[in-house]
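FW: tagging you since you asked about this chain on Friday. Here's the raw sequence from the shared folder, copied in full. Didn't touch anything.
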Amino acid sequence: MEIGYETVGKIMEDITFKDITVIHNYHKPVFSIHNSNNADVKGVRYENITVEHADMGRGDGVNTLLEFSNEYSPTWSNVQKTTSLGSMTDVAMQNILVMEGNNAPRVSIRGAIDPRNEYSKDIHWVTDIRIQDFSLYGTPLLEDYENLDTAYASGVVFASSGNKVTGAHYTENEAIGSFGPNIDFITM
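HL: got it, structure written out here
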């Protein structure tokens, strides 16, 4: 569930990832927005998502579960078209269930200063990020999480409504139609 790195364009908005089950994730972050060009990324929603096993870091990956970054990439920022960096705002995550995986995966929410002289070393912020009812191995993901990494980010809010986090929602008919009649339902 990635947006980026090649985010050349004025606006990328109203993007929704909903009712998704990830069986195994072995490489890069499960959730990522990598804004390395000039787009203003806004109105992104992650809703009702289950990650059964988060085992990031294999190959050239790192143990990062969630990475929202608005920063220059020496690999990707100049591939399509050289532009200044854009922005990221109004990203919401709700009802996210991560069942098991690596110990203490990194959660990164970072804006950056553009290091290139031609872009005046402007700060490109990540703002208004709301993460609500996100269960990481049975524990709510909150602002005191031990492996949270933030910089040039404002309005980052972690919240728990106290409701049970269920992850993806599928009716029995949808599951049979999508996955065949041999699917087993797991209830917790």
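FW: The mean pLDDT is 87.
HL: agreed, and Residues 172-179 form the longest helix (8 residues).
FW: great, closing this out.
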